[in-house]
Amino acid sequence: MQKLNRRSFLRVAGGVTAGSFLGANVRSLASAQTAPATPVAANDHIQIALIGAGGQGQGDTRTAVQVPGVKLVAVADCYDGRLEHCKELWGNDIFTTRDYREILTRKDIDAVIVATPDHWHKQASVDAMRAGKDVYCEKPMIHLYADGPEMIEAARATRRILQVGSQRVSSVVYAKAKELLAAGAIGKLNLVTAHWDRNSSMGAWNYTVPLDASTESCDWPRFLGTAPQIPFNAEHFFQWRKWKAYGSGVAGDLFVHLFSGTHFITGSHGPTRAMATGGLRFWKDGRDALDVMVGLFDYREGFNLRLCVNFVDGGEESEGLIFTGSEGTMEIAYNTVSIARSPRRKDPGYTTGTFTDAMQKRLLESYRQEYPLTHSSEAPAAEYEKYVAPEGYSDSYDHFSNFFAAVRTRQPVVEDAAFGYRAAGAALLGNLSMDRGAVVGWDPDAMKLA
To answer: Is 29 found in the same domain as 43?
Structure first.
């Protein structure tokens, strides 16, 4: 492990982040994905259905069917073109429908992936659980605060598995970060700084609208559901994240990932107070969801969380978290976690140069009596470590593996309804603070607005 004195550490730390220290001791993280797959018994095979076959839904399904013993048998979506493409991807024998309720009546389906627009998450998930299906629900779990208690109660009453799809909770990188923080690697945590920057049109949700988008190819009334009843609008249908009626903005799309990771690593149930600011800085295309949001959140565990999502960034697209403690920092960037430790010196130091020579002498004598020379005037040497996930590692795969393991064993999942509600509820405080123009309170234990 590289050793530097305090002056060298400060010079280096001023120029780079913890994750990019040259000469750090780099260690590989173990991953079950590199081990041979265990054969799955015939009676342990799981048949799934997809509800909402947009980009996220199809991406989820591609990952889910890679898990041994999992097969897709049905898909529901409100656009005919996506139903046709799912047959192209997974075979003409899969059942397709515009109405997900037809899927829920099938006895050959064990679990569903709910990847609809946010305003359908609660109803589709609750209907599925009441029909006896286990549910993998994309984040954010909720669109409205009232959704959370209903989803939690449905999971309890039906005894169905509900896993929320914020995959970092299953990541070996985040598990290592959790271990390091608990071991005191950076001392007492006082601040978490998280960001997600996007600079592309696709990153800002300007998804392509197909040429055949119409009331014939799209089930517009079913898509709207409980949203305001307006005439058909292809942009609203295919770019729904840009409008509050169907999505939850940058808070629900991206803040929630950062909350999920922070809560998993720290063990916290969530913040108690929040304030946010932001605006529409660049994408003034008719949307009502902000493209920049900054939030500050208070945690009773004694740290603050500072979040920023930026869709107008001129640099590289990136995300990451930095945990700042009393003795160093821990940074998560993509599939790595890095530690920069700078333990605090045991003696406080002194500033006597402006006093008389006699006073300086007396103060130094007194100081040395309390802090003998065995305590170095230099702080302990800085230490740097970096842990890297195996090449090609996918936390999404691990998240689905954890979900299907719970489906088979009926054991608790890693991200249940309460965890998902606490993450989404905390994230949506940003929207609420913006709407009210005020600091808002949250009870993370009772999961209620304060």
So the answer is: no
- 100 in any annotated domain: yes
Write out the residue range of the structural domain in which residue 48 sits.
Answer: 39-168
Please say which residue of 168, 190, 216 terminates a domain.
Answer: 168
Largest CA distance in the chain: 93
Which strand ranges, in their side-by-side order, compose the sheet holding 162-165? 95-97, 70-76, 46-51, 111-114, 134-138, 162-165
Q: Residue 95: which CATH number?
A: 3.40.50.720
Calpha distance 48→46 (Å, rounded): 6
Report yes or no: 283 and 291 within 8 Å, Cβ to Cβ: yes
User: Do residues 51 and 127 both lie within one domain?
Assistant: yes
- pLDDT tens per residue, range 10-36: 333 333 343 444 457 899 998 877 666
| Whether 1 contacts 384, CB under 8 Å | yes
Q: Using an 8 Å Cβ cutoff, are 68 and 40 in contact?
A: yes
Nearest to 428 by CA among 197, 259, 236: 259
Q: What is the pLDDT of residues 281-296, one digit of tens each?
A: 999 999 999 999 999 9
φ and ψ of 265, to 5 deg: -70, -40
Name the CA radius of gyration of the chain, rounded: 25
User: 403 in a domain, yes or no?
Assistant: no
Better-scored residue on pLDDT, 1 or 120: 120
Indicate the DSSP class of residue 209. Answer: P
Residue 402 covered by a domain = no
Cis peptide before 372 (omega within 30 of 0): no
| CA-wise closest residue to 132 among 63, 67, 47, 60 | 47
Ranges assigned E (strand) in 245-287: 273-279
Which secondary-structure segment (H or E) carries 46?
strand 46-51
